[in-house]
Amino acid sequence: MTAEQDRPLRTLFEAALEAVSAESRIVSHLPPPVPGRTLVVGAGKAAAAMARAVEQQWRGDIAGLVGVPYGHGVACDSITVIEAAHPVPDDAGQAAAARIMAMAATLSEGDQLLALMSGGGSALLALPAPAVTLAHKQALSRALLRSGATISEINTVRKHLSAIKGGRLARAAHPARIVTLAISDIPGDDPALIASGPTLPDRTTVTDALETLSRYNLTLPPEIAAWLADPAAESPKPGDPGFEGDRVTIIARAREALDGAAAAARLAGYHVDCLGDAIEGEASTVGAAHAALALIPASDPGRLPLVLLSGGETTVTVTGNSGSGGRNTEYLLALGLALDGHPGISAIACDTDGIDGNSEAAGAILRPDSLARARALGLDPARMLRDHDSASLFGALGDLVKTGPTLTNVNDFRAILIGAGSKSAVNL
User: Fold this and answer.
1) How far is Cα 196 from Cα 44, in angstroms, rounded to an integer?
2) Using CA atoms, how far apart are residues 34 and 111, in angstroms rounded to an integer?
3) Of 49, 69, 88, 145, which has fewest CB within 10 angstroms of its CB?
4) What is the CATH number of the domain that holds 210?
């Protein structure tokens, strides 16, 4: 399989990204102006692109501030863009969160807070709760990211260690009208978990946070343990009158990305099966399971050519030292080992934000001969899977997909092509 033959896989990924771009999704969801001021705030990998789209469409005065990861900024005219660290927060993220809270506190009745939230916002809104320091949050973030905890579990903990997340930003902006527009990176699309829900009531509790920490055997410093024992650590809940009249809309999600890819595939003559848009679990386990599903139709010419699509967010539980990679390249390596070089099956797995784990790639492409080529280079695919060094393997093959920041984020995109050489398939 040549690079040119990879084009169908890349085209599907590009169609998925286009379907969930901020520019294509935000226009129809903008709120009307209010008698007073409209302040725009936000955080996440798509926040600057969302802010720019708002500026391009808004009629009247507007101002605000959004936080994005380093390298994700875009030029805005009246909305300040601050870059900060992700996924482990830094001083810049803490300063941005403090400025957003101070700006929100100036709003009055008749004003409006337009909150633009997307995946990655939790790390970028780094305003620790009283008695919790940034260093505490950094250490706990690293431990949670290595533990195998799901994004929902991680954000549950974050909400209860924050002075801005879990509805606290909305509390600061009250009684202004609050409109939240979100791009979802959360399996299941719970808006209260996107960027840890700074403008939304929180259904999770301190008890839930403590259970997550216990589940993954994470030891807490005395300061965090003391804070979580304080009633003040509990977040605002549904039914709180401070949220009355607020509006939240998810403007893009994994399902739309998969729908965009599916439309492109069908137009080119492929059958399409969607395995789900909210798949979670260990990346290597999901990869092996998807290989078994791919092998079933591979022997049925009547169903070929076929695309298996899926989204969601898998996890990687790191034990010991790890190499270079992320959940998407780990998924692909496990998929390849289970397929064992089966001809006629290729795949792509990428994070829609353009960054997979600790690598510089969005993900990679798996070809039928990938593992054979790796072994010819002296690489041991099974060992590299155990060492979480999947990006090194695909990098050595020249099969990493490098997009740079995509300025959107609906988590993982995966496509498995089966029988792409069928005569009924049109080149994507």
Assistant:
1) 11
2) 6
3) 88
4) 3.40.50.10180
H or E stretch covering 84:
strand 79-84
User: Cα–Cα distance between 136 and 159 in angstroms, integer?
Assistant: 14
Cβ atoms of 22 and 53 within 8 Å: the answer is yes
Cβ–Cβ < 8 Å for 207, 233? no
- 382-405 burial code (b ≥16 CB/10 A, e <16): eebbebbbbbbbbbebebbbebeb
* Contacts of 114 by beta carbon, 8 Å cutoff, 6+ apart: 31, 38, 39, 40, 41, 54, 64, 179, 181
Question: DSSP assignment, residue 129?
Answer: P
**Six-digit token string for 39:** 């302040």
The pLDDT of residue 298: 78
Same domain? For 274 and 346 the reply is yes
Please indicate, yes or no, whether residues 287 and 190 belong to a single structural domain of this protein: no
Return d(Cα 122, Cα 297) in angstroms, integer. 40
Q: Can you tell me the distance from the alpha carbon of 136 to that of 115, in angstroms, rounded to the nearest whole number? A: 27
In the chain, the largest separation of any two C-alpha atoms, in whole Å, equals 68
Give 386's pLDDT tier (boundaries 50, 70, 90). Answer: very high
Residue 425 lies in a domain: no
Whether residue 423 is contained in a domain is answered as no
H-type alpha helices, 105-185: 121-124, 134-147, 151-159, 168-173
* 144, 268: one domain: no
Domain range spanning residue 262? 4-17+255-418
- At 357, the pLDDT band (50, 70, 90 cuts) reads confident
Q: How confident is the model at residue 99 (pLDDT cuts 50, 70, 90)?
A: very high
3-class SS at 243? helix
Query: Does 424 map to a domain?
Result: no
Q: What is the 3-state composition of the chain as percent helix, strand, coil, each rounded to the nearest 5? A: 40, 20, 40
Same-domain status, 280 and 244 = no
Query: DSSP code of 346?
Result: E
Specify whether 294 is located in the same domain as 232: no
Q: How many domains does the chain have?
A: 2
Would the pLDDT of 16 be above 80?
yes
Q: What is the pLDDT of residues 177-223, one digit of tens each?
A: 999 999 999 989 999 999 999 999 999 999 999 999 999 999 999 99
Residue 226: inside a domain: yes
